[in-house]
Amino acid sequence: RGLGDVYKRQHLHYAMKMRTEIMNRIHAAELNFLDFASTFRSKSTPLFGKILLFKCLITSTLLGGMITTPLTSADEEMLEAAHIRLARRLLGRRGYRRVKGDFRDLEITSESVRTTLKLTPLRTILKRRRISYFWGVLKYNKRQILAVLFGRGGWDESPTVDENGRVTAAAPPWLHKIDSDLTELMGTRWKGFREVWKRQVLMITKE
Fold this sequence. Notes:
The chain is an all-alpha fold and 207 residues long. The protein has helices at residues 3-6, 18-35, 37-41, 47-63, 73-91, 110-117, 122-139, 143-149, 173-186, 197-202. The longest helix has 19 residues, at 73-91. The model has no long low-confidence stretch (mean pLDDT 86).
C-alpha cells in the first residue's frame, strides 16, 4: 500500500544516502506497526503471537538487506532506538517507566523490554547475519563477491590486507566490519586474514 509494503521486501535503495534509507525504514516499520496495532494491543492475542508478528513486521523491515551494508555505530543506534520504541508501544503501560495520569515509577529499561519480548539486540543480529553471509560466500566459493568484499577489483592497487593478515586503511568498510565481527566472536584465536583464515571461518558453525 505504500512505503511499508516496499520495505517488507529485502533490498536496499542504493540511490539514497544511508541516513535517508534508515529513516525510511523506521517510518515503514511504524506504518507496519499501525497496520496491526489492533492485534498488538488486543488482550486476546497471546504474547508469543505478538512477538512473532513483531519480529516479522518490525525487525525484518528495519534489517532486511542490511548485512552487506557497513553501518556505522550511529546508524545501528538509530535502528535500535526505533526497535525499542515500537517494542514499548507493543507492551503498552508495561513498556514505560512513567506515563501521564499514572504516578507509578516502574523500573523499565530497554534491556527489560528486550527480556520481556525475547528480542535480540539488532547489533547482535546484524553481526550474526554478516558472519553467516560471509561463511556462505566462502562455502560456495563465490569468488566475484569475495573480490568485491575485499576491494580487489581490477582497478584497485592499494593492498586491503597487509602481510600479517590485518585489514589496511585501503580496505572497504565492510571488510573492517567483518574483521571486527570475527575478532569479537573468536577473540585471540582470530589472527586476521592469514593463511588459515578461510578454514577458521568455515569451522564457525561446527563450534
